[in-house]
Amino acid sequence: MDRNQKADVVSALNATFAELGVVVVTRNLGMTVAQSTDLRQKMRDAGATFKVTKNRLAKIALKDTQYEQISSLLTGPIALASSVDPVAAAKVVIDFAKTNDKLEIVGGAMGEMLLDANGVKALASMPSLDELRAKLIGLIVAPATKLATVTQAPAAQLARVFNAYAEKEAA
């Protein structure tokens, strides 16, 4: 990789760090190509990315970003899992690590908060942004649904009473 390519990689990583919600640092301990491809596909499906980077270039790209504190975690063969949704990348990585012992969670960061491996696991146990939105919408819609049901019930009861009288007189 020549100097210009390195500069492009650093600037692309720096721009990426500016718009992320979470970065999870993982250590790759001999994953096969098939396992790595499977993990990348799962990350893509969740709206996240998984990128193996050179530590030196990642440390340069982290400067002057909110994720600068994870520079200390970048030792050895690492990869960065990241997503705009603060929970998506952590969930996928934790689920994948449960079934694959060759992927180790080193730590990560959510904004300026540094997370250890247990912090990433705790983050993964939280509901995702979409799940929280769905719950919020459900809470907002529930009173309106109950109100419609309550206001409709007396009219339905009246209709049944009138129908019963109509059937009684027809017989």
What's this entry about, in short?
The chain is an alpha+beta fold and 171 residues long.
Q: What does this protein structure show overall?
A:
Strand 4 (103-110) and strand 5 (113-116) form a beta hairpin. The model has no long low-confidence stretch (mean pLDDT 85). The protein has helices at residues 3-18, 33-45, 55-62, 88-99, 117-124, 129-170; strands at 22-28, 48-52, 78-83, 103-110, 113-116. By secondary structure, the chain is of the alpha+beta class. It contains 6 helices and 5 strands. Helix 1 (3-18) crosses helix 3 (55-62) and helix 4 packs across helix 5. The chain is elongated and about 95 Å long. The protein has a 5-stranded antiparallel sheet with strand order 2-3-1-4-5.
Unreliable spans: none
In the sheet with the most strands, the strands line up as 2-3-1-4-5
By DSSP (H or I, 4+ residues per run), the number of helices equals: 6
The gross shape turns out to be: elongated
Percent of residues in beta strands: 15-25%
* Mean pLDDT across every amino acid position: 85
What is the strand tally? 5
Query: What is the structural class?
Result: alpha+beta
The N- and C-terminal alpha carbons lie at a distance of 94 Å
Task: Kindly provide the radius of gyration, computed on alpha-carbon positions and rounded to a whole number of angstroms.
Answer: 26 Å
> How do the SSEs run, as a string of H and E?
HEHEHEHEEHH
Q: Major sheet: size, sense and barrel closure?
A: 5 strands, antiparallel
Q: Helical residue percent?
A: 55-70%
